[in-house]
Amino acid sequence: MAKVKIGILHSLHGTMAVSESALVDAAVMAVEEINQQGGVLGQRVEPVIEDGASDPQAFEQQARKLLVEDRVTTLFGCWTSASRKAVKPVVESAGSLLWYPVQYEGLEESPHIVYTGSCLNQQIEPAVNWTLQQGRRSCLLIGSDYVFPRTANPLIASMVEHSGGTVLADRYLPLGWQDFSPIVEDVRRLRPEVIFNTLNGDSNYAFFRQLHGAGLRADKLPVMSFSIAEGEQQVIAVEGEGHFACWSYFQTLDTEQNRAFIQRYRFRYGSDRRCSDPIVTAYSQVWLWRNAVEAAGSLDPDTVRHGLAGKRYVGPAGEMRIRSNHHVDKPVLIGRARRDGLFDLVWHSEAPIEPKPWLGVEDLSMAAVPLIKESLRQFPQSVHYANILEAEIGRRKQVEELLRESEKRFRALVSAAPMGIYLTDPKGKCTYVNTRWCEMAGMTPGEAHGDGWLEAIHPDDRRYVSENWKRVEKSGGHWTLEYRFRNKQNRTIWIAGVATTLWNEAGNITGFIGCNTDISERKQAEEELAQYREHLEELVKERTLELAEAKETAEAANHAKSIFLANISHELRTPLNAILGFSEMLVRAPDTTSSQQEKISIINRSGAHLLGMINDVLDLSKIEAGRMELEPVAFDLPGMLEDIGRMFEVRAKDAGLRFDLQFDPTLARFLKADAGKLHQILINLLGNAAKFTRKGGFSLHARTLPVDNDLTMVTLRIEVQDSGPGITPEQQERIFEPFVQTQAAYAGPKGTGLGLNITRSFVNLMRGDISVESSPGKGSLFRVDLPVTLAEETEARGVEAVTPEVIGLESVQPEWRILVVEDNAENRLLLSSLLAQAGFEIRGAENGEEAVTLFQEWRPHFIWMDMRMPVMDGYQATSKIRSLPGGDTVKIVAITASAYKEQRKNILDAGCDEVVHKPFLTQEIFDALAKQLGVRYRYEESAVEATTEWVEISTEAVAALPKALLGTLRVTALSLDNVDFDAALAPVRDLDPALAEGLATLAREFRFDRILKLLDDTGKRDA
User: Is the overall model pTM greater than 0.85, yes or no?
Assistant: First the structure.
């Protein structure tokens, strides 16, 4: 749809904004309603809004912008007569139209303005006559100092005096005036019976509040106002109560059109908004324009204005009909203000009153009517220009006073300035110097005048200064120079001189102004700094050499540390691999007695404990080296916690302790984070709690908290509490440091003192926080907050198989040849024995060189390759084998005791297919062979595969249950008691046995979070 632009021009800032801003809302509302009905001539109306800022000059500028730059077809706006008169010539010269919605003084007529507000005979005359009829004969006139009050008040005075009344005084105050104490004194002194008020804008607020504060209430001294409507009365509710106003509309008007308008207006702008005559007029005149355009069949302002006479619109205030003089018939209403911001109607005209902007002169049949009109026109015009002239005179006086004050301040400032200031004529001859300049130069002002100032310059610098000054004299511009003064006492000071050219309006140089600053201290500091700089450069060179040496030393130490850790990892893990592997095989051996199994289990546990301590040290080294990385995966959080809980529940029971695992009902189930590190954090914290608690017990409490502005994240809060000996404040400050143990630790089981340090490092790596609350003798509470991502159920679903024991190979398979390359005899024997028992054909090699030879001779299907060996290591051997015939198809899996994951990449790059770390689990060995070769095994018959039960329950089945039963289930689920919940399922078993079994399964697994979600989702859908 095509668009037609209209301009809306009102004050959105300044003293008039309190009245005018609502008129913008009304006009916009009319535009949107017109657009909803198809626009104007099939085109959508687009309002362009500008701010007159309560300034006539701003109104003029914005009107020109709207008509010339924005090319609007017509304008709606203005309030004060001053703003209208400023816009009037702009509209007339552009051949456009202005629709003016506010009461005004009349005595004006323009074919380019539609005056939809009241004239004096439609507001002032009826209101004054009614007031005089109430017997109030003496009055005070108060108004804002601009055209409307200056025109209306003489008419009021004439009517009062004609009827035998008295005008005690008239007072005019600037727009926005706030101090009415002199007016209050006038009222007390003159004691008027009524006040006629033509104030505009926010001055009304101050006037009524100060009148009310002086005890001058409406029952003793009523005020008849001509610019107070519902919007203003709402602000001065108490102070304005009981006073009067005269308009052509009040919100209390009881008509169908008005009630419908108020409803729409409040729906759009709020139920607390009030409607008023200017608001309704601003709204109605937009519709009146639309009707005129439709009747003319054109948007052209000239075509529209020639057909305006007789156009009408029936709106909230009744019928508006345009007369040939571009004014409209208006009813007259007088209302008494209420505390709620509305007006009670106390009088109304019998019919709309015809507009007479010329106070009835237009009805005379005299040849002199045009002359009389012109004379009358001059009155408000002269008031308008008088106000402009008075404002300009006041402004100029203010500017002159400011200039005088500025000159005084300038002279005082220059005289007291801490730098030397001077003035010269165009030839560089000095005309003024201040006190500081004289002090620096050692001269009097008289000695400096003319060319005398040159004598103050050091003889060695005079030529240099003079040449630079002459250059500026010729072309003008700026001058910046550093030179020396030498005064009569032979004292030398350094000067930073700055000067700039002074020009007149004709572009000629009138002189120069400059200032001199004493920079002797700076120069001295620069010399000292230069010396320091030379010395510092020498020190920097020496220090750079020292740092380079220190860097080389540090790098060598770091390299040595890495080599040491790699060696210690290999040397410790390699024998542990044999200890743990053989002990595991012996425990499973059928001929091992129960007594032997017990002793071998002790060996296995001791080896595992030693491995845990080694891992702690290696983890710490990796953290310090920045080699630890996160490995986020999706996992079942309650499942992990329950697994850990079962482990510590057994440990607590054995120690005669109580262990509690507590889930918040809203705990999220599926998360994505580094599950391995979270598992280690929990093991470390619970392990400490179990280790140091002698009586009572310990607990694990888990919950998830929402994260602001991110629905994909939650904060996982883990709290581990125990009833142990507690931790002193001094120990709490150091407890997370490496190798630090509490006093209780010294008396209990021994450890590395690295558990909490590693825990904190893992928490920090996961961008979380860890804290401790503890008092000696009262136990400890460790709290961990971790930001984690929510995961989908499908991401974390999977098969959890019970690990079966391999007892041999399935039939109908190749005779698998396996080469074990390992320099450690015990580990080579362990791996060879393990594989031989399963039915593989095995050969062994002590180093990489033997491995290459055996590969060529024997052609194995699979090679277990140790990476650290003498003669030829695993990297070299793998690379060599890959280059030989058949080397591209053999499967090579590395076995390494390295603690660093980055070595995995190096191993794979060397040609290995996979990496297994020592100490390995038996299952890892068999799984690797199955993955790489497709080997199939025979297992113990007792070993069965179990899958995690995944209960699927439809929300439709839950929704089918009675609402009362749903409520009972929800209350019981919140108790987290599966026995009570199972009892509550009895009615469900009768209605839907499959649903009851599914819910019972969830309850047995303590999955009350899923049960509550099903119940809540059903409730939301029903709502």
Answer: no
